[in-house]
């Protein structure tokens, strides 16, 4: 009898043994498929969120991609067709909204058509998306000397050492790799990530917004967490930069575990207990942890409860129409602590809608519900 029990335990599914069931069983109203449906379908009728009033913005790009991935994971063909139809309109009657290729916050748009190409194999998506990835490393004639200097060192000329960049650059280059299997795209993103890790990660595992802005801004740190997550998902185990990136990721996750509030969320300034809870950065942290547990980078017993509490806390900020509240608006760097306290909070802002879908999709992978 004892022997039989031992054999039963030995061959239990991996995720049961290591606590991953905490990321599959949720109370009514908090299931990722249900929450994701509301958020993803909200995008169908949503208005464009433009960058500088001219081009499709990075929050809209990432929300769009999140909805596409949700449609793919759930086989929601109606939603997928709506996403394709919206993109067809963008590339026809709305061509003026296609971003130009001269800034880190604009080039990242290419990650959207590159993802569509991976799912459809329609070459028109590849032809549109790949130049955004390539021009991130092709120095324009009017580049500044500082931009040229970065390029000469093998980095993107769009390097500026803002933590936001480590999702903008990483997601574009990893999607280019996903579309082409050309390792140069992974090498670019990994080299860039190591630079940012070395320059911006502090001894406590968190990141300054920029070298001259010594504050641990929530969503900025979220961009770093999500960027490392995307890279670790793609990098081969024998890639030369993987150990450095994994080390930075683990150091950050350990710190975030410490700073998580009782509600499951993290604050606008992570290390300031009197600062307000912010949802977009919290969702990015949750995404990084959910992925870490499922991919085996994180100890499941330690981090599954953290990720679960984060998700349950996040679901309380989603209304019945799929709008996420308590989202910090777009935020430039500023060496002023009060500036981060005073940032406006919006509901339905795409900065928050997108990372919620990252969490949803990570939870739904491998048969989640």
UniProtKB/TrEMBL annotation:
Database matches in Pfam families: Glyco_hydro_88
Keyword Signal: yes
Gene3D superfamilies associated with the record: 1.50.10.10
InterPro entries: 6-hairpin_glycosidase_sf, 6hp_glycosidase-like_sf, Glyco_hydro_88, PolySaccharide_Degr_Enz
A single MF term (Gene Ontology): hydrolase activity
Record-listed substrate binding positions: 105, 164
Active site: 105 (nucleophile), 164 (proton donor)
Keywords in alphabetical order: Hydrolase, Signal
GO terms classed as biological process: carbohydrate metabolic process
Signal peptide limits: 1-19
Protein name: Glycosyl hydrolase
Lineage of origin: Bacteria, Pseudomonadati, Bacteroidota, Sphingobacteriia, Sphingobacteriales
């Amino acid at each position: 009898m004892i022997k039989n029990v031992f054999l039963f335990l030995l061959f239990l599914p991996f995720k049961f043994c290591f606590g991953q069931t905490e990321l599959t069983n949720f109370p009514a109203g908090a299931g990722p498929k249900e929450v994701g449906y509301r958020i993803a379908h909200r995008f169908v009728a949503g208005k464009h969120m433009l960058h500088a009033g001219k081009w499709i913005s990075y929050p809209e790009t990432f929300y769009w991609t999140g909805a596409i991935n949700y449609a793919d994971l759930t086989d929601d063909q109606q939603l997928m067709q709506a996403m394709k139809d919206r993109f067809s309109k963008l590339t026809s009657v709305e061509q003026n909204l296609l971003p130009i290729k001269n800034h880190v916050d604009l080039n990242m748009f290419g990650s959207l058509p590159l993802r569509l190409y991976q799912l459809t194999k329609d070459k028109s998506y590849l032809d549109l998306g790949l130049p955004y990835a390539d021009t991130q490393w092709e120095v324009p004639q009017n580049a500044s000397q500082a931009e040229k200097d970065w390029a000469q060192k093998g980095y993107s000329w769009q390097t500026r050492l803002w933590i936001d960049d480590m999702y903008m650059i990483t997601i574009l280059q990893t999607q280019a790799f996903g579309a082409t299997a050309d390792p140069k795209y992974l090498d670019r993103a990994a080299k860039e990530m190591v630079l940012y890790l070395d320059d911006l990660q502090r001894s406590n595992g968190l990141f300054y917004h920029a070298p001259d802005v010594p504050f641990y801004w929530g969503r900025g740190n979220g961009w770093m967490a999500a960027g490392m997550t995307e890279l670790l998902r793609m990098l081969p185990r024998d890639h030369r930069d993987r150990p450095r990136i994994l080390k930075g990721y683990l150091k950050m996750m350990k710190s975030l575990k410490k700073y998580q509030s009782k509600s499951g969320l993290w604050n606008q300034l992570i290390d300031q207990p009197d600062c307000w809870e912010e949802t977009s950065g919290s969702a990015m942290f949750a995404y990084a942890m959910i992925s870490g547990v499922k991919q085996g980078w994180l100890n499941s017993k330690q981090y599954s409860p953290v990720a679960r509490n984060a998700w349950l806390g996040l679901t309380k900020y989603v209304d019945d129409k799929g709008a996420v509240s308590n989202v910090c608006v777009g935020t430039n760097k500023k060496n002023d602590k009060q500036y981060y306290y005073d940032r406006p909070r919006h509901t339905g802002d795409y900065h928050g809608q997108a990372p919620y879908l990252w969490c949803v999709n990570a939870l739904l992978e491998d048969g989640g519900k």
